[in-house]
Specification:
The protein is mostly helical. It has 17 helices and no strands.
């Protein structure tokens, strides 16, 4: 499910946690494992597929820079197709998930403690997360029981995915999926029309901060280009960098800035107008460099304690945020080490 629901990492996280939490609890799977799998198939999967909010954002960000269109790969999204194979962190994070699930990778750190807790106490979440789950149990007890139907899930998500791929218009696909929900739920009295409209507006309002961040990120990008900051920094640092190590430096720099600020899309928008012109000026591989920028952003989204994806995942899985962040950290660091090595080797070879 984490791989199939690739349109947006928020959608991925909220859908998977809602669908799978009770099932994994029944099978005594620690919430730390559930949250790790969900978070690792959120942003990383969205960054690897061209029909996602991540692809739309980064393709537009890269294509706005001088020299990218001249690479000759086509329009913005077609150019992003060629960046995907170089998004090493996203690839590593997704590959590590089945290796972990099938036992090829050991349980490490907090994850090992979580499995020991389940084995000795039967509790799938830590004592610190108890209040969050008591609140949910009270809500469930007060709720009117509604029998679910698999078609209520498959049909709207199927419409979303098929239209996104067929038309290439993500907004059209989302609107069609919402209308499909309306046709499915209201006539069968799963939801009243008033409740449906309230939920639709609530979802829209929740996305306004994200839209604002994207808008101001592009404003910042344009402002930095206008004041000539790229040319200044290029002249200052060009003597100290070379094409071989530049992609690895780019990956680590974007990852550190993202981890420090929690600004998953804001940092790439600020540094891209500097990094890409510098890459062209020193002869670094531009696709590898763009892949490093995306990878650094994915690492920040995946591993930062206070990134929106990490906080949303722990909230939806009804567990303390640090339980989730620290239990997945060893696997995020493993993926980061593999990616850094990949960018170093790629920079030397390419």
């Amino acid at each position: 499910m984490g791989i199939l629901i690739f349109v947006d990492d928020y959608l991925n996280i909220m859908t998977l946690s809602t669908c799978m939490k009770k099932l994994t609890d029944t099978h005594k799977v620690p919430r730390e494992t559930l949250s790790y799998v969900i978070d690792s198939t959120g942003a990383p999967v969205c960054a690897l597929l061209p029909f996602s909010t991540w692809a739309i954002f980064f393709s537009g960000l890269f294509f706005a820079e001088n020299g990218v269109a001249e690479l000759g790969y086509g329009n913005a999204i077609e150019t992003f197709y060629h960046v995907i194979p170089y998004t090493f962190y996203a690839i590593a994070a997704v590959v590590i998930v089945p290796l972990f699930c099938f036992g090829f990778l050991p349980k490490l750190g907090r994850m090992k403690k979580a499995y020991n807790r389940v084995k000795t106490t039967g509790k799938v979440y830590s004592p610190e997360s108890r209040e969050l789950n008591l609140e949910e149990e009270d809500e469930d007890a007060r709720a009117v029981e509604v029998k679910g139907n698999i078609i209520d899930f498959i049909l709207p998500v199927g419409v979303l995915i098929v239209l996104a791929i067929w038309s290439g218009e993500l907004f059209l696909a989302v609107a069609a999926a919402i209308l499909t929900c309306l046709a499915l739920y209201v006539p069968r009295k799963k939801l009243t029309l008033t409740r449906f409209c309230d939920l639709a507006m609530h979802g829209f309002c929740n996305m306004i901060p994200t839209i604002a961040i994207i808008y101001f990120a592009f404003v910042m990008q344009e402002a930095m280009s206008d004041i000539g900051i790229a040319g200044y920094i290029i002249n200052a640092v060009r003597p100290f960098v070379n094409a071989a190590v530049f992609p690895m430096i780019t990956f680590l720099l974007v990852a550190i800035l993202n981890f420090s600020t929690g600004s998953v899309w804001g940092i790439p928008a600020i540094v891209t107008p500097i990094i890409l012109p510098l890459a062209f000026s020193i002869g670094a591989n531009p696709l590898l460099t763009m892949g490093a920028i995306v990878s650094g952003a994915v690492l920040g989204s995946h591993a930062c304690f206070y990134s929106d994806a990490t906080v949303l995942t722990s909230s939806c899985c009804k567990m303390q945020n640090m339980d989730h962040a620290l239990s997945q950290m060893p696997y995020a660091l493993l993926a980061a080490a593999v990616s850094a090595a990949g960018y170093l080797i790629g920079g030397v070879v390419m």
